[in-house]
Design a protein that fits this description.
Chain lengths: 158, 769, 427
C-alpha cells in the first residue's frame, strides 16, 4: 500500500467538511509526486478524490508551490540557486551552462534520461555558493566544469 | 449617532462599520475595487487609500485603507489629501501596467469600473515601457466569456464564486503577477450563479457570452425595470434592448430580494423572446393572418360556444392577463382556472393559504439570518435565489436538514439529509411533527434522522420550513405548515410556487375549477378553450388527459409568447408580448406584488394578454372594464405597484385552508413499484427551455436511480431501459445516483410529460435486452 | 566563548535519541515539568530572548500576551521555513541536531500548554525534514511525545509539515494558511493568530532558532542567558556570513558581536585581500545596506536598527568593490517579485515594475526619470502593502538609492555598468 492509499483510507472516514481533508492536500501531492516525479492532470484528479476537494481546489495549491511539478521531470532534478549570494559567485553562468549543455531551456526535458534543471530561490546553501540541490542533496561550490560533469553523470547513470 | 469627518463633512456610521462603508452610504465615492457590499473588505487592491488624523492624538496624519479602518467617533478622514491621492494614482498605474489598452473594442467599455477608476484617480499617460503579461483564456461554457489579459487580480470573482456562491470548480491559480482565475480544465462553470461573475468583475475578464453574440454598447441599450419571469422569487431585473431586440438581462438591486445578484436562469433564460420558433404572427387554422382577423375569428368561436367556453390562465401570466380572462369567462358563465393540472392547483392553493395563515414568509435578506431550516425537495432549480440565500445562512452557521426524492444540490451543505420517496414524504413529515410536538405516537422507534432534524428545529432561534409545491402533495404542504406551527411562533414558512405569478393565479382561482374544466373538456362540454400563457398539453401529470380531451374541443385559442405544444396545436394562435415588451404585475412567493415596465417594442405588433382579452370582449359586444378596475374588484384598494419600487404585499382575502378533501387519491398501481420523481435542472422552466445557452447545459436525459434500487433491480449504470405506463413508453438509460430515493426513478419533465405522469406517480421500468 | 546551540551539531551524523540523551539532551524536560507554565514564560521573558526569525520581538512577552486562559486546542508552530536569501542557520540546526529541536518544541509547547505542535520545514530541506520525522518517531517510542509525555501529565503531538516551497510561507499567517491547506496568502493583521490562528484557535509561531534557546534558558537560568551576550545583547546568535568572504558559514557568537569581527575574523575577511568592502546587508535580503563605517555596530536588534537597518535573521551578505550594488539590488528585487504571493497590488505589480526599471538601469538603458520612478513607487510599496513582505523587499533598494546613488548616476550617465569591464549587451 502506498502512502497515498494509506492517506485515502485515513481520510475516508472523516466528514466531507473536516479540516484535515484540506490540510492533507499538499502532503498528498508531495507524496504522490515522490513516486511519479510530477503531477499530471490525472494525478491532480487523484488527489482531489483522496481529499474530497475539487480538482480546481487542488490546482489552486499545486500551481502556487514551486516544488510541486505539473510538467514532466527527469529522473533527477537539479535545482540551481540564482539568489543573491550564489549570483555574486556566478550562478547565472551556471544556469546558462546548464541550458547550453542540455540543449533545452530550463525546466524542459532534453530526452528521457536527461535531468531536469531548474533555477531556484535561495537554497540556504550560501556557504557553498554557487550551490545546487541534486535530488535534494546539497552540492557546491559548483563550477561550470563540475556542473557539466554532474549533469553528464546524472544523464548516463543507470 | 456617531460620526466621522470626511473632508470636513460629518458622516454618520453604525458600530462595526469601516470608513469605506460609512462613506459609500453617504454617497461619498471612495475609489475601490476589491471591496464589495456582499463580500466585505479584503484589503488586496489598496485603492481605497485615505488619509486619517485620529482625534485627540498627536499621531501624525497617515494614509490607511478605508476598507480596513474602523470608523471611530471624531476621526478626521481626507479623501483629497495629496498623500492619499498619490497612493491611489500609483495603484491605478500599477494595475494598468498589464491591462490591455483595448477599451475602444472591449465589451465592458462604458460600464467598466476600472475605466471609471482610472479616469478618476490615475495618471493619464503610462510610464511603463516593458512588455505586458499575457494569458491564454479558457472555455468556460456558453454563459461566460473569459478574457484573462484584462484581469487586475482583485479576487472579487473567486470570493463570489467560492465564498459566496459556494462553488468549487473555479479558483485562483498560480501566484505573483501571474495569478490566473479559472478552472482546472476548460469546461462550463458548474455553479448555477456563475453568471454573476460578469457583474462582480470590475473589468472585462468575465463578460456575458450571450450578449456578446448580439452586442450593443451599454449606452445604446434601452432599459427599464422588470421582474424575472422564471420562478416565483420575483428577482428584479434590468433587461437591455436595442433595435427592437432583447440583448441581455441584468440583475437590478432589490434591498429585500435578489440585491446584487441573479441566478443563471434569470440572466440567460431571456433568449426565449428571441427564439426563432417564437410566434410573431397570428395564425388561424394554420395560416398566418393579421390580428384583426384572428381576433374576429376568436370572438366568433367564443360567441358560438357561449357558456361552453373554458379559459385557462397561467402561473406565468401576469395578474392583468389572468384577471381579464377570468372576467371574460365570468361574463360568459364559462369555467376559468389559472392552472392546467388539478393536483398542482390544489397544492398551490394549499400552499398560499398556509403562508397566508402563518403570515411569516421571509424575504431573501431575512432568509440569510435563518439558523435552521428543513427543506423538502430541490430549491436550487425551483427557486435558485432562495438556495443562494440559504447558502448564506449556512455560511452564518445555519443547520440545513434536507428531505428529497431526487438530486438536490443543497444537500452538500446539509447537516442532515435523507432521500425520501415522493409518496413517503408525508409519512416522514408526520413522524417529524409527532416528534416535535411530542404527541402520542412519538416513540423511540423513529429513526435517528427524525430525531436529529426534530432536535435541530426545536433548538433553533428561528427555524424555517421550505417546500417546493411542484414536487409536493397538498398533504405534504399541510404537514410542513403544521410542523411550522408546532414549533415556536417564530418559525418561518416558504413554499416555492410553480411560476412567477403563481401566488396571484391562486388568488384568482376558485378551488376545484381545474378538475371541473378538465372533466368538462373530457366529456365534450367545452366547445371553445382559451389558453393564455399556459401549456396544458405538455403538463406532466395532466398532459395526456388534455391531449385526449383536445379531440373534443372544437376551437383551441392560444395566447402565448413561446411555441409550446399547446400553441402549436392551436386553431387560433394569438402571439402576445413577452415580459420585457409589456407592463404588468407579478405576485411572488411572499405575496409581494411587483410591477414591471415595457422595456422596448419589437418591430411586430405584439399586444399583451390583457389587451387581447379586452379586444375580444369588445368584439363580443360586452366590453370589459380595464384590468386595473377588475383587479380592484378582486383586491380591495389594489394599486398596481410602480415598476422600480420595492412592491407591496397584495391585500387579498385569505384563501380557505381546508383543501384536503379535494385531493384525489390516485390508485398507485405498478407491477414493480417504481415511483417517478422530477429531476430538475437549470433550464427547466417553460421559458428558459427556449434559451439555447441554457439548453446546452442540459444534463443527459436519463433515468436516475440509487445504488440500492439498482442492485435490487439488477440494473447497471448505463443500462438501457423502458419506462412505460398505460399512456406511453419511453426508452432511456440508467444513471446511478445516490441522491435519489429508494424505489424512485428520477426523470426530467419532458419524460414525465410523455408518460403523462407527475412527481410521485407510479411508473413501470424494464430493462431492454 | 563556548558554543551553546551549535556545540553538538553534527551535519553528517546527528545524534540519535540515545546519543543525544548521553550528551545531556532532554534534560530540560524535567526542569520544565517542575515549573508552572507561567513560571517558564516568566523566565524566558526575563532572559530577554528575542525572536530570531527577523522581527526581534520578545519571545517571553509573545507567550505571555497569548494568555494562559486561551481556549483549547492551542497550537505551537515552529517556523523552519528558512528562505531568506543569505540565511542558512536553521539548516544547520535541522540537519545537525533534530532532537534539540524536538526538545525545544516540547518545553515551549508545555509553557504554552499547546497540545499540538507543527514544525514547518521548507521543502528544499526535505532530507532534513525526514530526519526530523525519524527523530520524532524515536521520541514517541520513548514516551517523550504523545499522551502524558515523560510522565508529566502533558500531552503533545508534533507534526512535521513539509512545505511545497515558497518564500511567503515563512510569513506567520501565510504559514498558517499553508498548514490548513489553503493558498498561502498572508491573512489580515486582525484578528491576530494568538487568538485566531490555525483553524481559528490560539496559535503561537516562533522561529526554530528562538525555540532551541529555551531548553538552555530553563536549565541555566535567565541571568546566565543575558550574560552570554555582549554590547547590550542577550544570549548567543547564529550569524550567517556569506557573499564575498573567504570562509562563509554559520558562527554562533554573542549577540552584539560587531560586524567587523564577524566578517574579518570569523569569515576570514574579503575573498580577495586587495579588495575593499563596499557594504553589507546585515540581516538577510530584506534589510537595508550598511556601509564600511558601520563595521563596529554591534550585531544586535537595537544597534542595527539605530544604524538604519535591521538585524533580521542575522545573516550578513558581503559586497566588495567589484560587486555592482545595482546588480545586487536587481537580483534581490527579482527574487521578491518572483516570490510575491500576488495578493495585493503594490507588491504583485509594483515589484516586477521595479525590477524592470532596475534592469534598464543595470543594462545601461536607464534614465534619470527612472531614478525618480524607483523612489516614487518604493514609497507606496513600502507603506501601503498588505503584509510585511513588500516593505522588506524594497528595503535594500531604498537604502541603495541613498547609499549608492552615485553608482546609479554613473549607470545612467555612462549608459553601462561600470563594474562590468567587458560591457554587457542590452537585454
Amino acid at each position: 500500500m502506498t502512502d497515498i492509499d494509506t492517506l485515502q483510507k485515513d481520510l475516508a472516514n472523516l466528514p466531507p467538511d473536516h479540516p484535515d481533508r484540506r490540510a492533507a492536500a499538499v502532503p498528498a501531492m508531495l507524496s504522490l509526486q515522490s513516486e511519479t516525479g510530477y503531477l499530471d492532470d490525472a494525478a491532480i484528479e487523484k488527489i482531489a478524490e483522496v481529499t474530497g476537494l475539487s480538482s480546481t481546489e487542488i490546482e489552486e495549491l499545486a500551481t502556487f508551490y514551486s516544488l510541486i511539478y505539473r510538467r514532466p521531470t527527469g529522473r533527477h532534478i537539479v535545482q540551481i540557486c540564482d539568489s543573491v549570494c550564489c549570483s555574486m559567485r556566478g550562478a547565472d553562468q551556471l544556469l546558462t551552462a546548464a541550458e547550453h549543455y542540455l540543449g533545452v531551456s530550463l525546466g524542459n526535458l532534453a530526452s528521457e534520461n536527461a535531468p531536469t534543471v531548474l533555477p531556484s530561490i535561495c537554497l540556504g546553501l550560501c556557504d557553498k555558493a554557487p550551490a545546487a540541490l541534486v535530488d535534494g542533496e546539497a552540492a557546491g561550490p559548483l563550477s561550470r566544469t563540475l556542473l557539466e560533469a554532474l549533469l553528464k553523470r546524472l544523464q548516463t547513470e543507470e | 449617532m456617531d460620526t466621522i469627518l470626511i473632508d470636513g463633512r460629518s458622516i454618520p456610521f453604525e458600530p462595526g462599520e469601516n470608513i469605506l462603508q460609512a462613506a459609500l452610504k453617504a454617497d461619498i465615492q471612495i475609489p475601490h475595487f476589491c471591496y464589495h457590499a456582499a463580500l466585505g473588505s479584503l484589503g488586496a487592491c489598496r485603492l481605497c487609500a485615505v488619509e486619517i488624523k485620529p482625534k485627540d492624538s498627536d499621531k501624525a496624519a497617515h494614509v490607511v485603507m478605508a476598507c480596513l479602518e474602523p470608523a471611530q467617533t471624531g476621526l478626521e478622514v481626507s479623501l483629497s489629501a495629496k498623500a492619499a491621492q498619490q497612493v491611489r494614482r500609483h495603484v491605478i498605474e500599477l494595475l494598468m501596467v498589464n491591462h490591455p489598452h483595448d477599451c475602444p473594442i472591449c465589451d465592458e467599455g462604458g460600464e467598466c469600473h476600472l475605466q471609471e477608476m482610472t479616469v478618476a484617480c490615475g495618471p493619464s499617460y503610462r510610464r511603463y515601457r516593458g512588455n505586458k503579461r499575457t494569458f491564454p483564456n479558457q472555455d468556460l461554457g456558453p454563459l461566460i466569456h473569459h478574457e484573462m489579459n484584462r484581469c487586475i487580480t482583485c479576487y472579487r470573482c473567486t470570493r463570489f464564486y467560492q465564498d459566496y456562491a459556494l462553488g468549487n470548480d473555479f479558483g485562483a491559480m498560480r501566484l505573483r503577477n501571474e495569478v490566473y482565475f479559472g478552472r482546472f480544465q476548460d469546461g462550463p462553470l458548474e455553479n448555477p450563479f456563475a453568471g454573476n461573475l460578469v457583474e462582480i468583475c470590475p473589468t472585462g475578464v468575465f463578460t456575458d457570452a450571450v450578449f456578446r453574440q448580439h452586442f450593443a454598447r451599454t449606452w445604446d441599450l434601452k432599459t427599464a425595470p422588470s421582474i424575472c419571469p422564471h420562478c416565483s422569487v420575483g428577482c428584479n431585473t434590468l433587461p437591455g434592448a436595442r433595435d427592437g431586440t432583447l440583448r441581455r438581462v441584468r440583475n437590478r438591486k432589490h434591498q429585500e430580494l435578489n440585491r446584487w445578484f441573479i441566478c443563471d436562469r434569470g440572466q440567460y433564460g431571456h433568449q426565449y423572446s428571441e427564439h426563432n420558433t417564437r410566434p410573431l404572427s397570428p395564425r388561424v387554422s394554420g395560416t398566418n393572418t393579421d390580428y384583426r382577423s384572428a381576433l374576429a375569428a376568436a370572438a366568433r368561436e367564443i360567441q358560438a360556444a357561449a357558456e361552453r367556453t373554458g379559459g385557462i390562465g397561467s402561473v406565468r401570466e401576469d395578474l392583468e392577463g389572468n384577471v381579464m380572462l377570468r372576467s371574460l369567462l365570468n361574463d360568459l358563465k364559462g369555467i376559468f382556472t389559472a392552472f392546467n393540472d388539478p393536483e398542482l392547483e390544489t397544492a398551490t392553493l394549499t400552499a398560499v393559504s398556509r403562508m397566508q395563515e402563518l403570515d411569516n414568509t421571509p424575504h431573501l435578506a431575512a432568509l440569510e439570518q435563518t439558523d435552521a431550516a428543513l427543506i423538502t425537495g430541490d430549491l436550487t432549480f425551483h427557486a435558485p435565489m432562495i438556495d443562494l440565500a440559504l447558502r448564506q445562512a449556512w455560511r452564518n452557521g445555519a443547520k440545513l436538514a434536507m428531505l428529497h426524492s431526487s438530486a438536490a444540490q443543497l444537500t452538500q451543505f446539509a447537516s442532515t439529509a435523507a432521500t425520501i420517496a415522493p409518496r413517503k414524504m408525508h409519512d416522514m413529515l408526520t413522524q417529524l411533527y409527532r416528534q416535535i410536538s411530542r404527541q402520542s405516537g412519538a416513540n423511540d422507534a423513529v429513526t435517528q434522522t427524525i430525531k436529529t432534524i426534530a432536535a435541530t428545529l426545536s433548538q433553533a432561534r428561528q427555524p424555517l420550513m421550505a417546500g417546493v409545491v411542484e414536487t409536493s402533495t397538498a398533504q405534504d404542504i399541510i404537514a410542513l405548515a403544521e410542523l411550522a406551527k408546532a414549533l415556536e411562533s417564530t418559525a418561518q414558512l416558504i413554499y416555492v410556487l410553480p411560476g412567477p405569478n403563481a401566488y396571484g393565479a391562486a388568488l384568482l382561482s376558485a378551488a376545484g375549477e381545474t378538475v371541473t374544466l378538465l372533466r368538462a373538456a373530457e366529456r365534450g362540454e367545452v366547445q371553445t378553450l382559451i389558453v393564455a400563457g399556459s401549456d396544458p398539453l405538455s403538463e406532466p401529470r395532466s398532459g395526456a388527459r388534455w391531449r385526449a380531451a383536445r379531440q373534443n374541443i372544437n376551437t383551441l385559442i392560444v395566447l402565448d409568447c413561446i411555441a409550446t405544444a399547446t400553441a402549436e396545436a392551436a386553431d387560433i394562435l394569438i402571439p402576445v408580448a413577452a415580459w420585457p415588451e409589456r407592463s404588468g404585475t407579478f405576485v411572488n412567493y411572499e405575496g409581494r406584488a411587483q410591477g414591471f415596465s415595457t422595456v422596448f417594442h419589437r418591430p411586430e405588433y405584439l399586444p399583451s394578454t390583457a389587451d387581447i382579452i379586452s379586444e375580444i370582449s369588445h368584439l363580443l359586444g360586452n366590453p370589459l372594464r380595464d384590468a386595473a378596475s377588475m383587479l380592484q374588484d378582486s383586491f380591495p384598494g389594489f394599486q398596481a405597484p410602480a415598476p422600480g419600487t420595492p412592491g407591496a404585499h397584495i391585500s387579498a382575502q385569505h384563501l380557505p385552508i381546508q383543501y384536503s378533501e379535494l385531493i384525489q387519491t390516485k390508485s398507485h398501481s405498478s407491477n414493480n413499484g417504481w415511483q417517478a420523481a422530477l429531476a430538475s435542472w437549470l433550464g427547466d422552466d417553460p421559458l428558459a427551455g427556449f434559451s439555447p445557452a441554457l439548453t446546452k447545459l442540459a444534463p443527459p436525459n436519463a433515468a436516475l436511480i440509487n445504488p440500492e434500487s439498482a442492485v435490487r433491480a439488477s440494473l447497471k449504470n448505463g443500462a438501457r431501459v423502458r419506462l412505460w405506463n398505460s399512456v406511453s413508453s419511453v426508452e432511456t438509460s440508467i444513471q446511478i445516483n445516490p441522491s435519489v430515493a429508494n424505489g424512485t426513478v428520477a426523470i426530467q419533465r419532458s419524460i414525465l410529460a410523455r408518460l403523462g405522469i407527475g412527481h410521485g406517480d407510479s411508473v413501470n421500468l424494464e430493462q431492454l435486452v | 566563548m563556548e558554543a551553546i546551540l551549535t556545540r553538538h551539531l553534527d551535519q553528517d551524523n546527528p545524534q540519535n535519541l540515545a546519543a543525544y540523551q548521553a550528551i545531556g539532551g532532554y534534560r530540560s524536560l524535567s526542569a520544565a515539568f517542575d515549573l508552572k507554565p507561567e513560571k517558564i514564560i516568566e523566565t524566558v521573558e526575563a532572559a530577554n530572548l528575542r525572536g530570531r526569525g527577523g522581527a526581534g520581538f520578545s519571545c517571553g512577552m509573545k507567550w505571555r500576551l497569548r494568555g494562559a486562559d486561551a481556549p483549547s486546542p492551542r497550537y505551537l508552530v515552529c517556523n523552519l521555513d528558512e528562505s531568506e536569501p543569505g540565511t542558512f542557520k536553521d539548516r544547520y540546526l535541522l540537519y545537525g541536531a533534530p532532537h534539540a529541536i524536538i526538545e525545544a518544541v516540547i518545553v515551549s509547547a508545555f509553557a504554552l500548554q499547546a497540545e499540538r505542535a507543527f514544525i514547518f520545514v521548507r521543502g528544499e530541506y526535505a532530507k532534513g525534514g525526514h530526519r526530523l520525522i525519524q527523530a520524532i518517531r524515536e521520541a514517541e517510542t520513548a514516551g517523550l511525545l504523545g499522551r502524558n509525555l515523560g510522565g508529566s501529565g502533558f500531552d503533545l503531538h508534533i507534526e512535521v509539515h513539509l512545505s511545497g516551497g515558497r518564500y511567503i510561507c515563512g510569513e506567520e499567517t501565510a504559514q498558517i494558511n499553508a498548514i490548513e491547506g489553503k493558498r498561502p496568502n498572508p491573512r489580515p493583521k486582525i484578528p491576530r493568530p494568538s487568538t485566531h490562528g490555525l483553524w481559528g484557535q490560539p496559535t503561537t509561531t516562533n522561529n526554530v532558532e528562538t525555540l532551541v534557546n529555551v531548553p538552555h534558558i530553563l536549565i541555566n537560568g535567565a541571568e546566565w542567558f543575558r550574560r552570554l551576550g555582549i554590547n547590550g545583547g542577550c544570549g548567543t546568535k547564529l550569524f550567517c556570513v556569506s557573499g564575498k568572504v573567504k570562509h562563509p558559514g554559520v558562527f554562533e557568537l554573542p549577540c552584539g558581536t560587531p560586524a567587523r569581527e564577524l566578517i574579518f575574523k570569523h569569515a576570514g575577511g574579503l575573498d580577495n585581500d586587495e579588495r575593499t568592502l563596499l557594504g553589507f546587508l546585515p540581516g538577510g535580503a530584506s534589510t537595508a545596506f550598511l556601509l564600511p563605517q558601520h563595521l563596529d555596530v554591534p550585531m544586535d536588534f537595537d544597534p542595527v536598527a539605530e544604524a538604519g537597518s535591521r538585524l533580521g535573521t542575522g545573516s550578513l551578505i558581503i559586497l566588495d568593490d567589484t560587486t555592482c550594488p545595482i546588480e545586487t539590488v536587481l537580483n534581490l528585487t527579482r527574487f521578491f517579485a518572483r516570490e510575491s504571493c500576488g495578493f495585493c497590488t503594490p507588491c504583485r505589480d509594483g515589484l516586477p515594475y521595479l525590477a524592470q526599471i532596475l534592469t534598464a538601469i543595470a543594462t545601461g538603458n536607464g534614465s534619470a526619470d527612472d531614478l525618480t520612478l524607483l523612489d516614487e513607487f518604493c514609497s507606496t510599496i513600502a507603506t501601503q502593502s498588505f503584509c510585511a513582505f513588500a516593505p522588506g523587499a524594497v528595503m535594500p533598494l531604498v537604502s541603495s538609492l541613498k547609499n549608492y546613488y552615485e553608482h546609479y548616476e554613473q549607470h545612467v550617465i555612462t549608459q553601462r555598468c561600470p563594474f562590468d569591464a567587458s560591457g554587457k549587451e542590452a537585454v
